[in-house]
Amino acid sequence: MPVITTIDDLKRLHKRRAPKMFYDYAESGSWTEQTFRENSTDFDLIRLRQRVAVDMSDRSTAATLIGTDVAMPLALAPVGLTGMQCADGEIKAARAAEKFGVPYTLSTMSICSIEDVAAHTTQPFWFQLYVMQDEEFVDNIIARAKKAGCSALVLTLDLQILGQRHKDLKNGLTAPPKLTIPTMINLATKWHWGLGMLQTKRRFFGNIVGHAKGVGDASSLSSWTNEQFDLRLDWDKIAKLKEKWGGKLILKGILDAEDAKKAAAIGADAIIVSNHGGRQLDGALSAIRVLPSIAAAVGDRIEVHMDSGIRSGQDMLKALALGAKGVHIGRAYIYGLGAMGEAGVSKALEIIHKELDVTMALCGRRDVRALDRDVLLVPQDFEGSWA
Ligand code: GLV
């Protein structure tokens, strides 16, 4: 077993161990992938301010996210097809999150169902909802999430239409994979993955198959989204969903201060500044670039979180210092899951936590909740002047 010290180490192992179509699914942005790339490279433009001769003892990364105590202000983001990166992937990721003391978010497009994850965990998790045209399906899935004790609904607002990721089309992405010749050749080298999959029954979209009507190809994410997602989603519908849910609500996919103000106005508990990991509108600005203006516009009224591009504890610290109360990671833990299952997700969380803690110390800070812009050196034109 190689010595694993970075999220990138986990990524290399994930690539080796998971079937190409699922690794590529995780590692794609839409169209030219400009936004996907800039989500990470923009973090590199920001530098850290080293301080010395400051007491570094008794450091704390503990915080709260929407009123829940967390070991560090980070949540696992919803990722579609997680249970295809590794057998029973959602259950494994949720267990690693609960052991670490951070929230796990289950995607609507998961392989393990809401009920299945609830049966194999002890802490409440968050549930991410895509709004479908079929109201009965939506009512039903909200009721299922309530019954399973989910403690927040994460409503995704930036995916009514699926952004085109070329690799998924070229690979013929489905869950489970259709056994074409190229897929079979690739699967022949992924025996560890295959053994896991042979031992589980969880190989289909568990929240959908058996629960939704009129789906042409229930194994294909793109047919499902094309046929079912609600193109008419608007702020009135969001307000009605908030009523229906009646619990904590997080709105995901906000990239503009005007939308952030609308989210605050309807009384959501938090927003996630996000461009869906660069998987939706290619050409949009990176999430870290827009974060400061959104935090300035609504940070006193609503909890501002961010995702898209975080691959280290240093990235996390930069986002917190620029106004995020918490961050969400997607790929960073999926690499761990694809590499080593539950232990890999725990490893990803440990790596990020250690990087965050040591960076905080070397910047002369002891409390993650008190991080501010002063720990950073931000280029003057970082946010850019866009007209
Ligand atoms: C779904 O959330 C996706 O980005 O594929």
UniProtKB/TrEMBL annotation:
Active site: H276 (proton acceptor)
Binding site for FMN: 78-80, 107, 128, 130, 156, 252, 274, 307-311, 330-331
Claim: rRNA-binding is one of the keywords in the record: no
PROSITE patterns: FMN_HYDROXY_ACID_DH_1, FMN_HYDROXY_ACID_DH_2
Residues binding glyoxylate: Y25, R165, H276, R279
EC number, as in UniProt: 1.1.1.27
Pfam families linked: FMN_dh
GO MF term set: FMN binding; L-lactate dehydrogenase (NAD+) activity
Reported cofactor(s): FMN
Record key words, sorted: Flavoprotein, FMN, Oxidoreductase
Family to which this protein belongs: Belongs to the FMN-dependent alpha-hydroxy acid dehydrogenase family.
Protein name: L-lactate dehydrogenase
Species name: Yoonia rhodophyticola
